[in-house]
Structures are given as C-alpha cells and as structure tokens.
Amino acid sequence: GSENNRGLQEWREGIGEKRADEIVAAACWRGDKHHLNIEHLLKTGEEPELNMITGGYWKSSRSFLDGITKPLLIEGAVWSPERYAGTLDCMAYTKEFGNNPVLLDWKTADKPRNKQKIYTYSLQLAAYRAAANHVYGHMGFRCDHAQLVIAIPCHEAQIETFNADQLDQLYRHFLGRKNKFLSSK
Length: 185
Hints:
Shape: globular
Distance between the termini: 15 Å
Structural class: alpha+beta
Largest sheet: 5 strands, mixed
Mean pLDDT: 90
C-alpha cells in the first residue's frame, strides 16, 4: 500500500536516485537471469552457464529444482474472468506433491524475506493459481498447491508453501485489493 511507497521513496532519497536506479536495475537483471537459468535446466536438462552473480542464487535453489519431476508450463500466460492476466513462472509435478501440479514462483533476494513481503508475493501466486485453474480447468486440470522459491546467495532457498485453503483465502484478499484499487481510479 501507500506505506510501502513512502518507505521506497525515503530509501531512494536516502541513497540518491542514481544509486537507487542502479540497485533496482541489478536486482531486475539478476532476477531475469535466474529465471532463464531455471528455464534452461527444465527445458534441456543441462546446467546453465553461471557467473559470479548468478552462481550464488543458482546454488541456493539447485537442490529444490531436483525435486521437479516434470514441468507442465514454463512462463505460461493465464487470465481470469475477474479481468486480470499475467505470466506464471512454472507449473510442475514435483516429488513432494506427486501427481498434483504445483505452481512455482522464482524469486531472488539478498536475505530471507519477511512475512509482509511473503504476503505480497503470495497474493500474486493465489491470483495466478486461480487464473491457471480457470484457463486449464476444462482439461481436468486443477492446481491446489503453490510454492515460493526464494534464492538467497550463501543460503538454502527460502521455500514458502501454500495449500488450497490458504490460496483461496489469499485470492479473496487479492480480489479485495484489486477491486479497491480499480474503484479508486
């Protein structure tokens, strides 16, 4: 909400616009690169080429990736009758959930994420899951689990797992925020 934006503005002013832009650009680059590295492994079975920056994030999430038995959708476009659309990171079968597809979202961070940040990410996950169930439901597809996989250098990945009940509740929160946002426009 607005308290987030105020914090962001104070951070930008504190370190200067130029430095803030550099940090944001670096974070975007590392996030994009991490996504591409995971896609490369899932599509080809081959390890990606890593560098000093990407290596730490890769190492953090590598053991989690071994648990993926079959990717179903990578960078899949989804949409909802609730008038939103997006691109989910990955839908896959995993050792942990067997024949139940899991929605996976890849993130990078420099330290473990707090509850507030996780909550923000989880609203997006819940929206993607609902949209995926809408788009692919007629094929008998149903996703009831989602996992946030946050790669952190020199640290095991932070894995946050959500079940159907949690995702349903988060989805109601997402819709409430979306509708509040649209009515304020």
